[in-house]
């Protein structure tokens, strides 16, 4: 299985276009991004990366490419609802959540 990782930095789109995202920390599929807002504010988002199938658009319609996936950033409405997507204004709180999400769960 091939997985395309999220970029280390990117600019937001749509209602997030004033925000730049920079990967602050990563462990496996747990990521913490630092968000820089146009007004100088800094926030942090911690989440488990989601996987989506990569698609071939050569026919004009998406066709899933077998065994190829890409990580995707959670949508803004997934924060606060999901138990795996969190937003913080404090780096200390973000680090705590990152550590908790990074602990392997034994079954």
Question: What do these coordinates show?
Answer:
The chain has 107 residues and is mainly beta. The protein is 11% helix and 48% strand. The strands form 2 sheets. The chain has a 5-stranded antiparallel sheet with strand order 2-3-4-5-8, with helices on one face. Strands 1-7-6 form a 3-stranded mixed sheet, with no helix packed on it. The protein has one domain. It is globular. The chain is built from 1 helix and 8 strands, in the order ββββββββα.
Describe the secondary structure blueprint for this structure.
Blueprint: E1 2-4, E2 9-11, E3 19-27, E4 30-37, E5 42-48, E6 50-56, E7 63-72, E8 85-88, H1 91-102
Parallel strand pairs: 1-7
Antiparallel strand pairs: 2-3, 3-4, 4-5, 5-8, 6-7
- The string of secondary-structure elements, in order, is EEEEEEEEH
When the domains are counted, the total is: 1
End-to-end distance: 24 Å
Largest sheet features? 5 strands, antiparallel
Count of alpha/pi helices: 1
Overall shape? globular
Strand order of the largest sheet: 2-3-4-5-8
Radius of gyration: 15 Å
Helix content: 10-25%
Extract low-pLDDT stretches.
Answer: none
Overall pLDDT confidence: 90
Going by helix content, strand content and strand pairing, the class is: mainly beta
Number of strands: 8
Percent strand equals over 45%
């Amino acid at each position: 299985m091939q997985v395309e990782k999220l970029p280390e930095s990117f600019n937001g789109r749509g209602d997030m276009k004033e925000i730049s995202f920079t990967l602050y920390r990563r462990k496996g599929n747990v990521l913490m991004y630092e968000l820089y807002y146009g007004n100088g504010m800094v926030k942090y988002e911690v989440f488990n990366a989601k996987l989506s199938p990569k698609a071939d658009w050569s026919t004009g319609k998406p066709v899933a490419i077998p065994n190829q996936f890409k990580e995707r950033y959670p949508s803004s409405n997934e924060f606060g609802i999901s138990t795996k997507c969190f937003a913080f204004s404090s780096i200390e709180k973000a680090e705590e959540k990152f550590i908790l999400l990074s602990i392997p769960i034994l079954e």
